[in-house]
């Protein structure tokens, strides 16, 4: 089992996890900007501290992004993102089964009157998942033809720090549920990116040359994905 150690590094509190790995990784996690370090077992505390302190400006920018995102409560009349557009959420109290359906520019959530924020979010996320799966399944074959590799399976997860992952052994591609909130070009970028890992496991020069060939506009899309809500 991985052991997480919380420590003070200069002005920062950092959660450190040591693993069998090659490189140090630093993540700034939503919603409160928690710092997470994944470190190789061989790396000493001093090297970790120097690594973190050398990235103070980057940490500040990332914290500003993750902590300033709009808080969503899933209340009546609230605006929800949907593939780059916006839908107005409308709540309809019911005593029966929860149901979510889109009607024009509205998203109708039929749910019991006493449902809390978590229950409303769960229902909407279920709808997002179905919508994203349909769009991704339709888009994937074209991406596979472009890259020349096929995914063995397409999965959807609500991930905190990544837009997608690829298991290079099994060929399974996992995409972030929140891509249902982004323009479709973001989904195409992530699918192309993850399929490229079936050619190149890492993010070396050869990987990015493939991205240049398969999706020449990838830099703009990556910037769009990094734009705060």
Along the chain, the helix and strand elements come as EEEEHHEEEEHEEEHHH
Shape: globular
List segments where confidence is low: pLDDT < 50 over at least 5 consecutive residues. Answer: none
Q: State the helix count.
A: 6
What does it look like?
- Strand 3 and strand 4 form a beta hairpin.
- The two termini are 35 Å apart.
- The strands form 3 sheets. A 4-stranded mixed β-sheet has the order 1-2-4-3. It has a 4-stranded mixed β-sheet with strand order 5-6-8-7, with helices on one face. Strands 9-11-10 form a 3-stranded mixed β-sheet, with helices on one face.
- The chain has helices at residues 45-53, 56-67, 117-147, 184-196, 205-214, 218-226, and strands at 4-9, 12-19, 25-29, 34-40, 79-82, 85-93, 99-103, 106-111, 153-157, 164-166, 172-176.
- The chain is built from 6 helices and 11 strands.
- With 229 residues, the chain is an alpha/beta fold.
């Amino acid at each position: 089992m991985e052991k997480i150690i919380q420590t003070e590094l200069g002005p920062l509190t950092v959660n450190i996890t040591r693993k069998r790995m090659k490189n140090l990784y630093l993540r700034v996690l939503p919603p409160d900007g928690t710092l997470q370090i994944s470190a190789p077992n061989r790396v000493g505390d001093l090297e970790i501290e120097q690594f973190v302190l050398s990235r103070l400006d980057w940490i500040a920018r990332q914290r500003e992004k993750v902590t300033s995102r709009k808080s969503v409560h899933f209340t009546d009349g609230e605006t929800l993102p949907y593939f780059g557009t916006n839908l107005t959420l409308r709540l309809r109290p019911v005593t029966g089964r929860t149901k979510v359906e889109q009607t024009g520019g509205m998203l109708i959530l039929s749910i019991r009157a006493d449902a809390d924020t978590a229950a409303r979010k769960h229902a909407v996320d279920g709808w997002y998942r179905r919508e994203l799966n349909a769009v991704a399944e339709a888009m994937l074959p074209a991406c596979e033809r472009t890259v020349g590799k096929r995914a063995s399976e397409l999965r959807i997860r609500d991930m905190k720090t990544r837009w997608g992952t690829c298991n290079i052994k099994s060929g399974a591609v996992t995409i972030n549920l929140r891509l249902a909130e982004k323009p479709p070009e973001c989904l195409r970028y992530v699918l192309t990116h993850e399929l490229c890992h079936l050619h190149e496991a890492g993010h070396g020069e050869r990987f990015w040359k493939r991205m240049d060939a398969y999706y020449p506009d990838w830099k703009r899309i990556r910037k769009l994905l990094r734009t705060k809500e």
